[in-house]
Every structure is written in C-alpha cells, then in structure tokens.
Amino acid sequence: MASTYSCKHCGTNLNLRSFYAFPPDFYFEAGNKGSVSFSAVDAAKLRFEKEDKIKPFFETLNYWGIQRKRTKMICNSCAHLLGYIYDDGPPLTDTPGQFHMGPSQETIR
C-alpha cells in the first residue's frame, strides 16, 4: 500500500512515492532525526533554493564541518520549508558528487 505525503502546512499532495523512500533504519552521516528520506522527488511540486553557509555546524559527534552546502526544498503552493537535500547520501548515480563524496539525499521533515 502506497503512502501519501503532503505538506503539513497547506495539505498539498507532494506526489512523493514510497518506492523512493529509504528504510526508516537507513543510516546517513548527518543523522536521520525522525525524518523521511527519499532518493527522488517530484520537482514540479517543490521549489529549490541553494544554501551555502560558512559557519561551523555539528550534527553528530562524527559529522561536523565549517562549510555547509545544502538545498532547501520549499512547497510550491504555500512556500513552507519542507526539508533539505544534503550531499551525504548513498551513491545514486555514477557521478562523484560534491568533493567526490557521492550524490545527495532528499530529507522531508
């Protein structure tokens, strides 16, 4: 049975497929933090904004850094922040990704 994922703020169906959801116990370097992570999303339902901050961050004991590059995922209908795309997911393509660390994961909160 497929799940329906929608924006908590306005209720718009985000057209996310359970098939692309990572298992709840799948480990990511930045931590899962009770979120649902997808390997693919419907770009027609979301707006993407790049974020590049030079500021120390600490996610877990082993995941920290000085510069954070991530992409905000925003609902097209109400402009509510839904989550982020990080460059710490498992390889999804044959491309090397940022700093040759692999491509991204999508995280919906």
UniProtKB/TrEMBL annotation:
This is MsrB domain-containing protein. It comes from Arachis hypogaea (Peanut). It comes from the Eukaryota. PANTHER family: METHIONINE-S-OXIDE REDUCTASE (PTHR33674:SF5). InterPro entries: At4g08330-like, Mss4-like_sf.
